[in-house]
Amino acid sequence: MLTNGEIEGTRRGATAMDTVADFELGKSATQAGLAQFEGMHRIAPKNEDALFLLTQGWGGYAWGFVEDEMEIARDRGDDATADYHKDRAHMAYDRAIFYGLELLGHQAEGFATASKNDKDLQAWLTKHFTDKDDAVNLFWTGYAWMSRVNLLQDDPAMVADLFIGVALVQRSLELDPDYYGASAMVAMAAYHGRTADAEVDEAKKLFELALQKTGRKALTVQLTYAQLGCILGDKGLYDRMLKEVLAVADPDPQQRFNNMLAKRRARRYLDPKRTADCGFMTK
User: Fold this and answer.
1) Nearest-angstrom CA–CA distance, 1 and 44
2) CA–CA separation, 74 and 188 (whole Å)
């Protein structure tokens, strides 16, 4: 009972760190939190708050910190270190997905069978996940799945299962398009704009809608939108979105940490080496 109460309180208070724009503090706090939540899960394995904190925590840690280190190493030409951090990110996404699927399994059985093809998976999701509150667990599990595929684009087997993450996030979007700064909408926009031959018009539509819904205060929207500019070879879109991220000081104190992460990457993405990787000519 004490453990369950502590886990519940931890989940309620976890959003306090969203207001702190300190990268090193956030990194150490996230690492400590993951160790704490793993222990809590061992003591109370059926506690859904612990499963959620592990799903969200491992996925957020992989993107916010481990992939950040991977990108920095890759940019300086240190491929060995970059590959090391890539393996770490892979592990983190694996754990996020493991706990996320366990969490979804508390609500509905049959994922393993349903996920063999897109049609059956969508039918399973539509049948068993019908409330707005279901969007939360669906998003973080699907987000980790899509992020893992993006990390391992050179693995055909992994790419073949992208539809699973897409279906989870799409269902989350249908149930609550506003959750966590329209994150499901942004993830789906990135998916539709994954290549220049994909559904680019749909991607732009979703990005613009996400900017409208967030009042342009969730800067990860602009950061992700900029990547569409890179894919399309649209330097104007790329520069405009990244410079907007850097131009605003503190648009929303409740999203201060994520906005700090967006600014950190935007600075790096405007580096001439990065713009050259997008195929943009530099003077």
Assistant:
1) 9
2) 26
CA distances in angstroms from 260 to 4, 144, 213, 216, listed in the order given: 32, 21, 20, 14
Mean pLDDT to the nearest integer, 153-170: 97
Structure tokens at 76: 């300086």
* Cβ-contact 60, 30 below 8 angstroms: yes
Measure the CA–CA gap between 218 and 62, rounded to whole angstroms. 19
Rounded Cα–Cα distance for residues 120 and 164 (Å): 11
Question: What is the token pair recorded at 216?
Answer: 């342009």
* Integer CA distances (angstroms), 95 to 13, 51, 211, in order: 23, 11, 31
Q: Tell me the DSSP string of 56-86.
A: HHHHHHIIIIIHHHHHHHHHTT-HHHHHHHH
The average pLDDT across 209-236 equals: 97
Take residue 37 and report the two structure tokens written for it: 């939540």
| pLDDT tens, position by position, 196-210 | 999 999 999 999 999
Model-wide pTM > 0.85: yes
In the numeric block, which tokens belong to residue 237? Answer: 């879109």
Angle ∠(57,62,63) on CA atoms, nearest 5: 105
Question: Residue 141 belongs to what H/E stretch?
Answer: helix 134-151
Distances (CA, A) of 252 to 11, 105, 124, 248, 260: 21, 35, 37, 10, 11
Tell me whether residue 108 is exposed, middle or buried, using C-beta atoms within 10 angstroms of its C-beta: 0 to 12, 13 to 18, 19 or more: middle
Interval 126-155: pLDDT, tens:
999 999 999 999 999 999 999 999 999 999
